[in-house]
Specification:
Chain B: Residues 123-168, 200-220, 230-251 have a biased composition (Acidic residues). The complex is a heterodimer of chains A (180) and B (784). Chain A is α+β, with helices and mostly antiparallel strands. Chain A has helices spanning 6-20, 24-28, 49-55, 86-89, 101-108, 150-155, 171-174; strands at 2-3, 35-40, 43-48, 63-66, 68-73, 79-81, 96-99, 113-114, 118-121, 130-135, 140-146, 161-168. Chain A has two domains: 2-82, Nuclear Transport Factor 2, Chain: A (Roll), CATH 3.10.450.220; 93-174, Archaeosine Trna-guanine Transglycosylase, Chain: A, domain 4 (Roll), CATH 2.30.130. Chain B contains 41 helices and 15 strands. Classes of the chains: A alpha+beta (180), B alpha/beta (784).
Chain lengths: 180, 784
């Protein structure tokens, strides 16, 4: 377990800002205690500081997880967000897509979102903007990347993809072993 | 069957009946207008309608008679019809004398039973069974006039067919001919009602012609008519046994209901026969006789007859219930028990050792317990209060077609699922972490643990994280939870669950629980849901029945003892809010439960406190000649047959000192009351100089003093302070206390062991433990 290096921080925050923009600040400066990001086994954990200190009691081999896992660094140094970060992305998300109940299940099986499954979309979403996918009752289902801007979405035919799937809560049962 | 009914409909115009059956009420109304049919009675049979509204109570015909016969105003048409009927009746009765003769010609045998029998159906039956025409055909031949009008509707072809059929039906016996009348597969049970008769039938057919023109009020006339006529004819009707008895009721039932009824009856008869057969198989004796050696040998060679075994289980249980009176002379209880055990093993396929143990645990309820192990427990889910409320969750799930209910008064977060149209482990709600599938029994240890906010908690064998997440939810994501599980793969399940449930205060580790004290101590509360033999969850894993023998249990128990000691070591007695250890297993064996607790009570400075679970059975204080601590009844046992949840054991321990009693005391403790007490006191005296604090010793000192309030009172204050103060100060204080108490104790020891000074008790017990507990701890020592 160690703090992130500058490079890692940069890569990580860049990725994170695609989804929540400036709100990263709110993740770090929290009124309810000091929180920090820690790297462990190439995974980035977001954890309360006192919890992190206690977790340091455990040896590296035996420590599996602490706090919330946000994602991992790939071997090539890029950062990949995991669905476990969803709880922290969803409240701060700048751009969202709401999917119709009929398309909910499709998305939870790992499919992209088609135009015909699109319930609502935040205004002024740019193409390739990171978006949070929600059900119509505002339950976050996952996140992805907008394949079309809001404007384009209006005029495409029903079967075009409007958002690319990146992670969804279905992974909790689909690939529990690979969550971390 | 429906098809036949439709095709054989009363008239050609009646093609729409099909649609009616399909269920359109509107169409029915339309048809009514131009049609000579009475639908009033039929309305009730529509499945849609009946499901919407409860039917009016269906009075058996014989009761209905009275009210029907009550004078009522007849409409002019009704009067006309009545007149017609009477006329017809008269003519029929007149013609009756002739008809049988005619019938003899027609049917071959007829006799007194005329075609009147054939057509002896109420209007209901006509409606129900499209073969009606076929039935009525002979009638048409015989007394043509009366039915002619009715039969006019029927196409010529049909009539021909009908007559053909009746010709076929010209069997030797009249009964047969009746049954032939029904061509469909219902003929076996469709027999004319006992009470209805030919004249009525004529009336009916007549009636129907008219009634459809009329309004619904005809129905009652029909009934009264039926009654009148039937009463008159009753006497000369021959009945067809059982079937006829149901005749009246049947008329009001749907075909499917009738079929069910018939099946039930058949089943009942079969059961009865089987029972009788069994009874004849078994030697019938007043006193049950144990099987002889030969019989036993025989059973060993060939597979035992399970029904026989079951009966024998019953019998042996009966004998054991009142042994002195029902026993066979010269047979001991042991023999009966041996036989019972063997039979239970065969019947439920357990291994002998496990069965023996279970019989010890459940001397009276063994069969209940075994039976309940054959059935699955209800599926229960726990609401994640961090993300949703139970009411919202229940609503969301109900919308998905899940049938559920609150689990009971004792939990505010549990729901029982009766049936679900969707997989409960994959609904969007589940994925969003709104709930967790969790057995009802798994709530209990966490409820007993009662974690407070901002505490440090250790879950020693956490996977798959059900209890951990519950504890985290109770702590509202504050404080710190260490979720440990030795198995790395299973630890992944913890990770998945805590992330899904949105829990952020948890550290997941994969240590061997026994080594955890080396990693971290000073937890406020420790939850040890120990790995166990699983004898409480046989319904989940039937393999337990066979593959758990004495060694496995002993191995489990040994591991559990080690884990519990480790758990106690991880706990901090000086915790302001906690210092509690929960020990739970999903086993019912005392070796894995009471025995383990007893061991911990001896090995560590812990005492049993109430689990604060207001249901469940008390733990055993003695079992198989072993005696356990008196306070063992503060532990709770849960059984599948008694509480409809997995077999479970929960014990709550309070650690009152971080010191570990000297090793030498442990071995000798079991020997005898006196020696043990002395030895312990010796231990305390010897240990006190070395280990400066021995809270235990201190307590004892206070307890033993009956009239030492003066001494103990001033000490109670320092003790309270002590907890707040730093450890070093603590130690000093304690050592003082100990030395004081010991001097007193040595004097008073033999005098008054059992009498306890309340002040001493209350002082030791800082938390919620009731005073009694202390007393009982002490009493335990006396017991040995």
């Amino acid at each position: 377990m160690r703090p992130l290096t500058d490079e890692e921080t940069k890569a990580f925050f860049e990725k994170l800002s695609k989804y929540i923009g400036e709100s990263i600040k709110q993740l770090i400066d929290r009124p309810d205690g000091a929180y920090c990001f820690r790297l462990h086994n190439d995974r980035v954990f977001y954890v309360r500081e006192d919890l992190m200190k206690k977790a340091a009691h455990a040896s590296r081999e035996n420590l599996v997880s602490f706090g919330t896992c946000f994602g991992k660094f790939t071997k090539s140094g890029k950062f990949r967000l995991h669905v476990t970060a969803l709880d922290f992305l969803a409240p701060y998300a700048k751009f969202k897509i709401w999917v119709k109940p009929s398309a909910e299940q499709q998305f939870l099986y790992g499919h992209h979102i088609m135009k015909n499954g699109l319930g609502r979309i935040t205004e002024n979403t740019q193409q390739y903007q990171g978006i949070i996918v929600c059900a119509m009752n505002d339950t976050p289902l996952g996140f992805g990347v907008a394949a079309k801007s809001t404007q384009e979405c209006r005029h495409t035919d029903p079967m075009t993809i409007v958002a690319f799937h990146q992670a969804d809560v279905g992974e909790y049962i689909r690939s529990e072993e690979h969550l971390l | 069957m429906f098809k036949i009914r439709i095709d054989g409909g009363k008239s050609g115009q009646n093609a729409g009946v099909r649609i009616w059956i399909i269920k359109s009420y509107v169409i029915l109304e339309k048809e009514k207008m131009g049609q000579k049919r009475d639908f009033t009675e039929r309305l009730k049979r529509g499945p849609g309608r009946s499901s919407k509204k409860q039917k009016p109570p269906q009075m058996p015909v014989q009761f209905r008679k009275d009210e029907d016969e009550a004078p009522k105003n007849l409409s002019s048409r009704a009067k006309k019809r009545m007149k017609n009927r009477l006329k017809k009746k008269a003519s029929l009765e007149a013609g009756k004398a002739k008809k049988p003769i005619k019938n003899v010609v027609d049917l071959g045998s007829g006799g007194e039973k005329s075609d009147s029998d054939l057509s002896a159906f109420s209007s209901d039956d006509e409606d129900l069974f499209p073969d009606h025409d076929e039935v009525e055909a002979p009638l048409g031949e015989s007394d043509s006039d009366a039915v002619e009008s009715d039969e006019e509707d029927v196409s010529g072809e049909e009539e021909v067919e009908d007559s053909d059929e009746t010709e076929e039906a010209q069997g030797p016996a009249k009964k047969k001919s009746i049954q032939k009348g029904y061509s469909d597969d219902n003929k076996s049970w469709l027999t004319p009602s006992k009470k209805s008769s030919l004249p009525m039938d004529d009336d009916e057919s007549e009636d129907e012609d008219e009634s459809t023109d009329d309004e619904d009020d005809d129905m009652k006339d029909d009934f009264s008519d039926k009654e009148e006529s039937s009463n008159s004819e009753d006497s000369d009707e021959s009945t067809d046994g059982d079937n006829d008895e149901d005749g009246d009721d049947d008329e009001k039932l749907l075909p499917i209901e009738k079929a069910t009824k018939r099946l039930r009856k058949k089943q009942k008869e079969d059961d009865k026969l089987a029972e009788e057969e069994l009874q004849t198989n078994i030697a019938e004796t007043e006193t049950f006789i144990l099987p002889s050696g030969q019989e036993i040998e025989k059973e060993l060679v060939q597979a035992a007859d399970l029904t026989l075994v079951q009966q024998r289980i019953k019998d042996v249980k009966g004998v054991l219930g009142d042994f002195t009176n029902r026993r066979q002379d010269g047979r001991s209880r042991k023999e009966y028990l041996r036989q019972l055990r063997k039979d239970l093993c065969t019947y439920y396929s357990y291994n002998d050792y496990l069965m023996g143990e279970l019989m010890e645990l459940f001397p009276n309820e063994i069969v209940d317990f075994l039976e309940s192990n054959e059935v699955q427990r209800p599926v229960t889910i726990r609401t994640n209060t961090l993300k949703t409320r139970r009411r919202d969750l229940a609503q969301a799930l109900i919308n998905r077609g899940v049938n559920l209910d609150p689990i009971g008064k004792w939990s505010k977060v549990g729901l029982v699922v009766y049936d679900a149209q969707v997989p409960l482990g994959a609904t969007p709600e589940y994925l969003a972490g709104h709930y967790l599938l969790q057995g009802g029994s798994s709530f209990l240890p966490v409820m007993a643990l009662a974690p407070q906010e901002n505490e440090k908690l250790l879950d020693m064998s956490a996977a798959p994280g059900g209890k951990t997440t519950y504890a985290a939810a109770l702590m509202r994501n504050t404080g710190l939870i260490f979720a440990n599980d030795a198995n790395e793969d299973r630890a992944k399940a913890i990770v998945g669950n805590i992330h899904r449930m949105g829990i952020t205060n948890t550290v997941v580790t994969t240590y061997d629980g026994r080594k955890f004290p080396k990693v971290m101590r000073n937890f406020d509360r420790v939850l040890l849901d120990a790995p166990c033999s699983g004898t409480g969850v046989i319904s989940k894993d039937q393999a337990v029945k066979i593959n758990k023998d004495e060694k496995d249990i002993a191995r489990c128990a040994h591991l559990q003892k080690e884990l519990l000691l480790a758990a106690i070591d991880c706990c901090d007695a000086k915790s302001k809010t906690g210092g509690y250890i929960i020990y739970s297993t999903c086993s019912v064996m005392y070796q894995e439960n009471e025995d383990v607790i007893e061991y911990a009570l001896k090995k560590r400075n812990v005492k049993l406190v109430s689990t604060e679970l207001d249901f469940g059975r008390e733990g055993f204080t003695k079992m198989q000649g072993k005696r356990f601590h008196q306070n063992m009844k503060l532990t709770r046992r849960f059984y599948p047959h008694a509480h409809n949840m997995d077999g479970f054991f929960v014990a709550k321990l309070k650690k009152f000192s971080n010191k570990i009693p000297g090793q030498e005391s442990a071995g000798a403790e079991e020997e005898s009351i006196d020696t043990e007490d002395k030895k312990e006191s010796d231990d305390e005296t010897t240990s006190s100089p070395i280990s400066s604090t021995t809270d235990k010793a201190q307590q004892k000192g206070q307890k033993n003093k009956n009239n030492q309030r003066d001494n103990s009172k001033p000490r109670s204050n320092p003790k309270k302070r002590k907890i707040i103060e730093s450890e070093t100060a603590d130690k000093e204080e304690n050592s003082e206390d100990v030395s004081k108490s010991e001097s007193v104790k040595k004097q008073k020891m033999k005098k008054s062991q059992s009498s306890l000074s309340p002040s001493g008790k209350s002082k030791v017990k800082k938390g919620s433990t009731p005073r009694k507990n202390k007393g009982k701890i002490f009493k335990r020592k006396k017991k040995y």
